[in-house]
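Hi team,

As requested, here is the filled-out complex form for the protoporphyrin IX containing FE run. I kept the field names the same as last time so the parser does not choke. Let me know if anything looks off before we queue the next batch.

— J.
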Amino acid sequence: AVPAGCPAHTSSAAVPPAPELFTWEFATDPYPAYAWLREHSPVHRTTLPSGVEAWLVTRYADARQALADSRLSKNPAHHAEPAHAKGKTGIPGERKAELMTHLLNIDPPDHTRLRRLVSKAFTPRRIAQFAPRVQELTDRLIDGFVEKGEADLIHEFAFPLPIYAICDLLGVPREDQDDFRDWAGMMIRHGGGPRGGVARSVKKMRAYLLELIHRKREDLGDDLISGLIRASDHGEHLTENEAAAMAFILLFAGFETTVNLIGNGVHTLLNHPAERERLQRALAAGDSELLATGVEELLRYDGPVELATWRFATEPLTIGGQRVAEGDPVLVVLAAADRDPERFAGPDTLDLSRSDNQHLGYGHGIHYCLGAPLARLEGQAALATLLTRLPDLRLAGESGDLRWRGGLIMRGLRTLPVEFTPG
Ligand code: HEM
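And here is what came back:
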């Protein structure tokens, strides 16, 4: 018999068993597991598939605080056990590589200097001027499959759109953009780890970017790479390596995220016919308000970035009442925080006109997504154009049969087969 009041007994009787993380079921629908964690183990120690031990932060209030906590470093040098998995931790930047000293792997004061420099080139004005080009790309991609009456929206639409957009913005000549498409495809297929084909793709991309920066330096243009070369802060410029790492992170951070914003967004809308019809009616009436709030809600409801990128404790600290040791990795689970009932009313309901929607889909604090205005532009153009040009768009097959990528940081579909009346 178990003694009355035994804490182990009372808690195990009251609490349903802990869910298994990182399985197929979890990759398909992680939200029930996140609800359990928020409720029963909000700052949860787990062993990741790579073997690395890390804390998962799942409540909104803790997540927001952790994202802005300067005691949590982005620099993988602060990881207590970098040798633990002999360099196979899957933590980008843990193995020395020039392109990896970018914004998401550094802290102030370096981060402050680099972010200030890139912000001078990557301005909201530049993005706004880019809107007609994004619309043209969106229409051209839809033209490519509209006659067929069917398409895989990931491969034929969500995947090429952001890569061509960011290449155009950076100033990669059109004739070289298919190489970028192939390199990026290699990275997304293999989950971004620096292995085999991925390592080769990163190497090729780096060599290409350094060469391009060289050429632009001789002949400055109106593009973002020229802007990066021109940008100066108190007379200081980016070095060539810093400019290449910056171009790389813009490509890398702006690519798979946007693929998944479009993929997850269309998938969610097709599974919520009433909300989708509401949006189609608003678009037909020329009202773009619901499109703007709707894309934010799609980010909150099933966003592209499931976990924020790595952070490491630089000193012992407490998160949500849990002691975290110096050197421990901390992963902020944006997807869990954005469904927290303490912060969002009816968090599991999709409401395209949700107000008071301060989701964490773009992060928070000094690493807040630099590309958010571009992501919004692409996401809004993609969804509005698809729903307007293919009004009877529907899934070809069952939603439950779709396969999710199951990576650690990102959440996204491998394929999204759809049908529609050919146009
Ligand atoms: C940072 C999300 C699109 C460039 C971030 C972070 C998140 C995020 C969550 C913070 C990560 C952290 O703190 O660990 C998204 C989502 C996108 C998107 C959901 C699409 C829907 C883009 C695009 C670009 C971009 C299109 C650029 C072309 C960046 C950069 C950073 C960043 C450079 C690092 C900023 C810094 O460390 O100061 N993004 N992103 N993102 N994002 Fe995005």
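Two things worth flagging: The longest strand covers residues 43-47. The pocket of protoporphyrin IX containing FE is lined by residues 67, 103-104, 115, 166, 249-250, 253-254, 257-258, 261, 299, 303-305, 308-309, 361-363, 367, 369-371, 374-375, 379 (CB under 6 Å).

Thanks,
J.
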